[in-house]
């Protein structure tokens, strides 16, 4: 993880990241004095259990999680559920724009493909893009945030002004501009969303970094010779991780929405089935004015449900992890 | 998304989502039912023939295209050239029944015995809208300008390339001397402009004719107002020699979204929807059942084709662009087209609203229409396509065609992001060619002209509207149409340059006998077909719709099963008869219900906000309350 990691100091860090499995041997014994690693592992397990207990108390979070697990399973099992050639236009089972029926529970699109099958396949793209874009966004945001929070002075000023610049730029416009100049592919969309939505995360992480770095043990660590990398990776990062995790889940939902928006505006890869792309296809086929609701409503509702599920999870995680939200007085 | 999350994070303590959520859902549901209740009375409220306050009869046409230029010397798009048909007279016009040439600004025309001098008799009953008389001098000025000023030759330069001298010996006589015989002399689709206005224009390459309104013209309508991407307004020319149009005003209103245009037609805001390029099958089907709306379908003037990049080059033979080298092999091109099932495209993508592609010129122009013979025809035959590819050295390795250099064969196709048919056909091509082992990337752009002119494409979706005289669409494949400099815009469609074709082109241009000329044109189409540079997928029908309670009758072209928008002539708009004068009871009802919808939405939002506020207040005061 780090290039200059000297002897790890798990005691000093509140949430050590060292998950070395070699320490497994002396974890079970309770009577003998435990090694620091075993202690850390035990505490980690405990905090995980505590987290789950707290999470469980948020009913909306549980609903969100259940919905996500279900949708993820559907997306993974798409070839089994919908058939591997459900996206093929050359060999379609139905006629164009058929009403929902027993054979096609959600009707057909203009090529005669089952809308339900497309919806199932579209889940893959929407989830993949949402997750990858959110990871990219949060990764950039975390790096910028920690670096800007750790190094004060002109370095931080420059970074934060760049962040501010991205923050005031309208995300959608920037993403459209990026998606227009680059190739129309799924990676372009991921990149476009990732590089335009990170400033909020950066600001959040920077604030948390400043708070962490003002704690006395950081000063102690510095006095004991901890370098920049050591402090940032061993002490600051573990402490901002909960925040980052919560932020990721929240960003995913907006990333999925942005992906759908871009695809709807015709900036996605037209040969890939995504929910936004389905909406765009429906619009271009004239389904709106023809009143073919079965083609329009399902992808729209699907986007809304997934975005809602991620938001519910994110909020629940956030209120569990964030000390300011988690403690009710 | 971000802002509320942040607010809560730094905000007022623990958040309970359930109550406001339920409240929002309820509010949303309420709004939905309320507006849904209104939506039904919205639809069947037909507005009578749109009349402005002063009782003017206005014909509003919804168009999707934007105007590229209002200068007849620059305009090339269908909308702009259609508007020029209305603003200015052309020497000749086409009969709406069967496309034969009939008098326009000229009443008679005649070639000399040596075929090199054409004499036109100009009508004396045409006046410009500012009162000046329109004479042969105006026509001579127009042609001379195009011959001497490169900027003025941008749009229609091809017509005058062969002119030696144009003179107007008298106000009713125009004489054109040619260098070589030219068959298109009775089909010079060039708007004649008034000399007294246009002689003061400095730069024809930049002047867009949109500075002073009304624009002086002598056509059936006079352009009175124009707002970029909003509307073009024309008023009837009451002194038009063929007779004044029946409508007082004609407005081309821009609707970028076709669904919006259809909705506007349903509500009676527009009288006619042109479609871009046609209404979709779903839209046509849903409009067919509608009261007071007529869906008109006629054979199209357009062809819809696949073009391959034959290696972009300049007039001097300098190569540029990055077209795939594999496409330089005729066998590869033919293999691609052998694996395209045109019938499926017509059935599935156009859902029968198109005719299967054969030759280059649509069957609507029966004189020039050509069909490949059975032995020549590249019918759907994937096996033969695979054989041809093997022969050309692209063997199947795994599931990919690999060339002699060991690289897999992957192609790109340029598609118009604005044309849903391009994207839909792209999906089919990807599968068909994928089965052959050829990879395809569908590259959809809003503006394809940049990579196109730069020659940076392998294949492209292509399409042109064909005129009754095919000279123009044939001329865009000659060597003379190639750009002078790399990446410059030029008349060429697809960088085709071939000696055989060029010779045939010159031959047909010089042939005054219609039957012989048609024969040469067919030979040219045969050559194009075999070359594999162009594959005509189909001829999309014109599918358009209008309100019968606003337009009583309108001329189609050809009269039997023809189209209305984009005719070769001004027949449709000139002939349109407004529906009977029933009393006005419109506008109010419509805006009233819109207002009601807005009111309900606002009320619901306020209610929801209030509910949330109360819920939050209750929460914050929870400690105090007990």
UniProtKB/TrEMBL annotation, chain A:
Q: Keyword Transmembrane on this protein?
A: yes
- Bilayer-spanning residue ranges: 62-82, 125-151, 158-179, 185-205, 240-265, 293-314
Q: Which Pfam families match?
A: BPD_transp_1, OppC_N
- GO CC annotation, single: plasma membrane
Classify the protein's membrane topology as the record does: Multi-pass membrane protein
Where is the major localization of this protein?
membrane
Per the database record, which ranges form the ABC transmembrane type-1 domain?
123-314
Cite the entry's keywords alphabetically: Membrane, Transmembrane, Transmembrane helix, Transport
Q: Residue ranges of region Disordered?
A: 1-40
Q: List where in the cell it is found.
A: Cell membrane; Membrane
Regions of biased composition (Polar residues) lie at 19-33
The biased composition feature labelled Low complexity covers: 1-16
Example GO biological process term? Answer: transmembrane transport
The record's similarity note reads:
Belongs to the binding-protein-dependent transport system permease family.
What is the protein's given name?
A: ABC transporter permease
Q: Which organism is it from?
A: Streptomyces himalayensis subsp. himalayensis
TrEMBL record, chain B:
InterPro entries reported for this sequence: Peptide/Ni-bd, SBP_5, SBP_5_dom
Per the record's keyword annotation, is Signal included, yes or no? yes
Q: Which GO terms describe its cellular component?
A: ATP-binding cassette (ABC) transporter complex; cell envelope; periplasmic space
Q: Gene3D superfamilies from the entry?
A: Dipeptide-binding Protein, Domain 3, Periplasmic binding protein-like II
In Gene Ontology terms, what is a biological process of this protein? peptide transport
Q: Which residues cross the membrane?
A: 596-616
Location, primary (coarse class): other
**Keyword terms:** Membrane, Signal, Transmembrane, Transmembrane helix, Transport
Residues in domain Solute-binding protein family? 102-474
| Localisation | Cell envelope
> What molecular function terms (GO) are annotated for this protein?
peptide transmembrane transporter activity
Family indicated by similarity: Belongs to the bacterial solute-binding protein 5 family.
Its protein name is ABC transporter substrate-binding protein
Query: What organism is the protein native to?
Result: Streptomyces himalayensis subsp. himalayensis
Which taxonomic lineage is given here?
A: Bacteria, Bacillati, Actinomycetota, Actinomycetes, Kitasatosporales
């Amino acid at each position: 993880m780090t290039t200059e990691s000297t002897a790890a100091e798990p005691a000093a860090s509140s949430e050590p990241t060292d998950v070395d499995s070699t320490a497994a041997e002396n974890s079970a014994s309770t009577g003998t004095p435990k090694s620091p690693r075993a202690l850390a592992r035990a505490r980690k397990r405990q905090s995980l259990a505590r987290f789950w207990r707290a999470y469980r108390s948020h009913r909306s979070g549980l609903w969100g999680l259940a919905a996500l697990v279900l949708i993820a399973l559907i997306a993974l099992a798409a070839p089994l559920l919908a058939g591997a050639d459900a996206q093929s236009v050359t060999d379609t089972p139905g006629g164009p724009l058929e009403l929902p029926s027993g054979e096609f529970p959600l009707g057909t699109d203009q090529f005669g493909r089952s809308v339900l099958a497309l919806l199932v396949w579209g889940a893959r793209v929407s989830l993949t893009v949402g997750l990858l874009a959110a990871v990219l966004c949060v990764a950039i945001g975390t790096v910028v945030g920690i670096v800007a929070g750790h190094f004060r002075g002109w370095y931080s000023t420059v970074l934060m002004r760049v962040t501010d610049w991205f923050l005031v730029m309208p995300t959608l416009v920037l993403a459209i501009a990026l998606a227009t100049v680059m190739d129309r592919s799924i990676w372009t969309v991921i990149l476009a969303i990732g590089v335009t939505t990170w400033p909020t995360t950066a600001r959040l992480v920077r604030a948390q970094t400043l708070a962490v770095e003002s704690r006395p043990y950081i000063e102690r660590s510095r006095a004991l010779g901890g370098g920049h990398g050591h402090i940032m990776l061993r002490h600051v990062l573990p402490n901002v991780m909960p925040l980052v995790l919560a932020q990721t889940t929240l960003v995913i939902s907006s990333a999925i929405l942005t992906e759908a928006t871009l695809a709807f505006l015709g900036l996605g890869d037209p040969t890939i089935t995504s929910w936004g792309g389905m909406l765009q296809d429906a619009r271009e086929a004239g389904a709106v004015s023809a009143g073919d609701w079965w083609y329009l409503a399902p992808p729209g509702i699907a986007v809304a449900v997934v975005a809602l599920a991620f938001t519910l999870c994110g909020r629940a995680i956030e209120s569990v992890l964030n000390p300011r939200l988690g403690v009710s007085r | 998304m971000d802002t509320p999350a942040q607010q809560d994070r730094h905000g007022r303590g623990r958040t309970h989502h359930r109550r406001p959520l339920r409240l929002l859902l309820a509010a949303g549901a309420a709004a939905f039912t309320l507006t849904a209740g209104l939506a039904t009375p919205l639809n069947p409220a037909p507005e009578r023939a749109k009349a402005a306050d002063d009782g003017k009869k206005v014909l509003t046409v919804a168009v999707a295209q934007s105007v590229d230029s209002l200068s007849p010397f620059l305009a090339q798009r269908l909308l702009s050239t259609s508007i020029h048909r209305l603003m200015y007279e052309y020497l000749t016009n086409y009969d709406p029944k069967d496309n034969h040439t009939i008098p326009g600004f000229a009443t008679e025309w005649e070639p000399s015995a040596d075929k090199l001098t054409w004499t036109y008799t100009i009508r004396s009953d045409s006046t410009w809208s500012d009162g000046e008389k329109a004479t042969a001098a105006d026509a001579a000025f127009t042609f001379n300008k195009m011959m001497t000023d490169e900027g003025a030759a941008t749009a229609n330069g091809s017509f005058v390339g062969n002119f030696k001298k144009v003179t107007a010996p008298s106000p009713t006589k125009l004489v054109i001397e040619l260098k070589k015989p030219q068959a298109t002399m009775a089909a010079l689709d060039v708007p004649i402009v008034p000399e007294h206005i246009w002689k003061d224009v400095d730069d024809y390459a930049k002047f867009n004719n949109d500075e002073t309104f009304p624009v002086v013209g002598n056509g059936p309508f006079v352009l009175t107002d124009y707002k970029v991407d909003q509307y073009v307004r024309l008023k009837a020319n009451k002194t038009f020699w063929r007779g004044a149009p029946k409508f007082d005003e004609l407005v081309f209103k821009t609707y970028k979204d076709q669904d919006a245009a259809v909705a506007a037609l349903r509500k009676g805001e527009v009288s006619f929807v042109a479609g871009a390029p046609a209404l979709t099958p779903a839209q046509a089907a849903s409009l067919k059942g509608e009261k007071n709306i007529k869906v008109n379908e006629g054979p199209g003037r357009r062809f819809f084709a696949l073009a391959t990049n034959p290696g972009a080059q300049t007039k001097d033979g300098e190569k540029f662009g990055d077209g795939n080298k594999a496409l330089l092999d005729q066998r590869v091109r033919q293999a691609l087209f052998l694996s395209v099932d045109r019938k499926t495209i017509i059935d599935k993508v156009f859902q029968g609203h198109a005719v299967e592609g054969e030759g280059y010129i649509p069957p609507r122009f029966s004189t020039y229409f050509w069909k490949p013979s059975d032995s020549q025809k590249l019918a759907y035959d994937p096996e033969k396509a695979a054989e041809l590819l093997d022969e050309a050295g692209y063997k199947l390795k795994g599931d990919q065609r690999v060339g002699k250099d060991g690289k897999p064969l992957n192609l790109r196709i340029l598609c118009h992001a604005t044309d849903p048919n391009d994207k839909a056909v792209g999906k089919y091509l990807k599968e068909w060619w994928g089965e052959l082992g050829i990879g395809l990337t569908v590259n959809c752009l809003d503006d394809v002209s940049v990579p196109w002119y730069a020659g940076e494409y392998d294949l492209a979706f292509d399409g042109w509207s064909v005129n009754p005289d095919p000279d123009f669409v044939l001329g865009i494949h000659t060597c003379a149409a190639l750009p002078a400099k790399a990446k410059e815009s030029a008349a060429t469609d697809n960088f085709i340059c071939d000696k055989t074709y060029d010779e045939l082109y010159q031959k047909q241009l010089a042939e005054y006998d219609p039957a012989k000329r048609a024969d040469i044109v067919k030979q040219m189409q045969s050559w194009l077909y075999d070359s594999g540079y162009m594959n005509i997928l189909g001829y999309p029908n014109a599918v358009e719709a209008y309100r019968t309670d606003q337009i009583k009758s309108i001329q189609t072209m050809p009269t039997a099963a023809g189209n209305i928008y984009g005719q070769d002539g001004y027949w449709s708009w000139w002939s349109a008869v407004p529906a009977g004068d029933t009393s006005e009871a419109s506008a109010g009802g419509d805006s009233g219900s819109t207002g009601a919808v807005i009111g309900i939405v606002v009320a619901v939002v306020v209610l929801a906000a209030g509910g949330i506020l109360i819920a939050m207040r209750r929460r914050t005061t929870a400690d105090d309350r007990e």
